[in-house]
Specification:
The chain is α+β, with helices and mostly antiparallel strands and about 800 residues long. The chain is built from 20 helices and 33 strands. Helix content is about 30%, strand content about 25%.
Amino acid sequence: MPDRPDWTWEYEGYDPAQERLRESLCTLGNGYFATRGAAPECTADSVHYPGTYAAGCYNRLTSDVAGHQVENEDMVNLPNWLPLRFRTDSGTWLSPDTHKLLDHHQRLDLRSGTLERTLRYEDESGRHLAVRQLRLVHMVDPHLALLRTEFTAEGWSGEIEVESALDGTVTNTGVERYRSLASRHLTHVHAGTATDDTVWLRCRTSTSDIRIGLAARTVTGASAETRTAHEGTRAAYLLHIPVTDGRTVTVDKTVALHTTRDPAISDPLHAAVDRVGRAPDFAALLTSHRTAWQQLWRNAELDVPNSAGPILRLHLFHVLQTLSPHTADLDVGVPARGLHGEAYRGHVFWDELFVLPYLNLHFPEVSRALLTYRHRRLGRACSAARDAGHTGAMYPWQSGSNGREETQQLHLNPRSGRWLPDHSHLQHHVGSAIAYNVWQYCEASGDAEFLHTKGAEMLVQIARFWAGIAAYDATLGRYRIRGVVGPDEYHEAYPGADKPGLDDNAYTNVTASWVLARTLDVLRGLPEQRRRDLFERTALDPGELNAWEDVSRKLHVPFHDEVISQFAGYGDLAELDWDGYRERYGDIRRLDRILEAEGDTVNRYQASKQADVLMLGYLFSPAELRSLFRRLGYELDDATWQRTVDHYLRRTSHGSTLSSLVHGWVLARARRADAWTYVHEALAGDIADLQGGTTGEGIHLGAMAGTLDLVQRGLTGLEPRGGALRLDPVPLPELSEYGFAIRYRGHWGVQLRLCSGELRITVPASDRDPIDIALADRTVSVAPGESCTLALPDR
């Protein structure tokens, strides 16, 4: 575990076993691209993995998997701009794996978005060389990155050789279980020289034909002999620099990256060469970069004074590096593992459900762009529905470049070594997540234009899909949704069934009912002309709306033993010997893999990978959840919900970082004494790598953003709804005092602070209208330039 001052994340010493984890957590990015925190003097091997990823840059390759030809789309590992290796005049290239490392320290500065390395090498002759490096991925100019390296000879004088390179030999091999698959995405790699101090590399992706151009300018203030040494797919610039005992020499490497996905360029290589040639010097770039980060922190102010504070700040740092204001100009979604590695192939899942609610109240323009990514792929989702014999829009569980279903057909169980069918594409609830995010964004931002246009179009087609696949069961007098997979993910089929899918997943059915009801509300509120245009555009007729109303009130929700059933028949499944499996295996988070390796299946048991039914308590406040069930004709009283929470708590293995987040959120209101255990686990998920090596393949962006939203909305009960900020705080003893700022409907920097049983709201001076604040049975209006303190109700 690193040292954790308020604004730095530090690692002391070199530990090969921890290097992949540290590389992920020390990734630097700006929303356009990001680079892992790998050592510049090291190439990719079993210890190091210096990956660079540009948002939305995908490519497809075909692999032979268990006798099947399978096509997969991956976020591409782009040419490595980091390489900067060095040696003294008496030895080989220095690296922590081949030479004696006397000191090694890494310091990630969250406030300024920089990574500093300080280290001391001993060469073959016993001479010492001190090295200090500072790197950044520029937050003002999203195409620039910078690496400064300072060398100091200790106790000797002579010469060092430095090689600054751009490496096009890279492949996608950052995830062990994917390594038997095709991994070489880059082709037509060429290297060259632009000017005396600048080299370039160009290439393209093999199938998506994205052209990539990089240029690196390397300068030193010392008197140096220089030359280029390009080797096929690697551009290299060599410097022979005289060094004197105790005197520091500096080498600055400035890099520009462009692709053909960028707007306003004609050729990515020419753009990169031009940009790096015009780039300011190190001092100017560092100053503007720090200023940009100061502005980001000001717009996402977070003050949590206890031990959770530094972790939350680290989480926010990685959210901002993946989804920065630059993201608003891109056609990209929310990559579940950030721009930090190759896990999940860089795909877009439902994780935006955990990310956008936080962004809505800080960077709504980014939320709008991420939702626009979904709208641009609405046509593809409608085509997918038609191809499957359905109506409306069937969004894919995993999305990438063009919105087709990217979910793998087969997945590898590392325990058994077997490739198994993957049925997670049946998680159609991703459509409800998109609809939920549309509504939450519009409530928080007041963006009626988006709601009435792109938002309404998505809502209509998602509602149409749910109404279309809901089949009426006269025996029950209700509608049923069959053949789906819920958020749990462990259960893909009934025991012994010859086809995948489950019936009446409670989470799926309740959220489908919400989508139908909410869409009807939106349609009723549309301006008449827009309503007419939308009806014509989507061929809606009043008969469909009547059917939606009926389905929204009559979807079936199964129960067993006076608790909500995860799906129809869940209560008939066998009970698992949880204690026995924990005793035999210790960590049983991935219980599905354990059982499959034993020749069994988790489909037989009442066991969940992560929150499923309890996700309803994450999305909806207690009052709204009761209202949803009442609309469906069920009474969900507190006792039933408590029994439901207890039932699934005992039967969940938490095989996802999202699980502890959701359980902590739900328990804060259902069983507060136990909430902190899960909140603490959610905070530690990535920094302690609780999922056993997965963080080294990329951070878990949804879980990181979710912990921020737990503080922002979960514990405050903050709901932007009906033009007001509604609050229902449930402070935990471990998080009873904290503050944050939000951006709400044109008000920038609205301050909220919980302290000593009080909630204080401060609205900055502006020309905007007052903000209505609703707490318990009281509503107050706070004008710009004013503050208000409200007593929290007793609980």
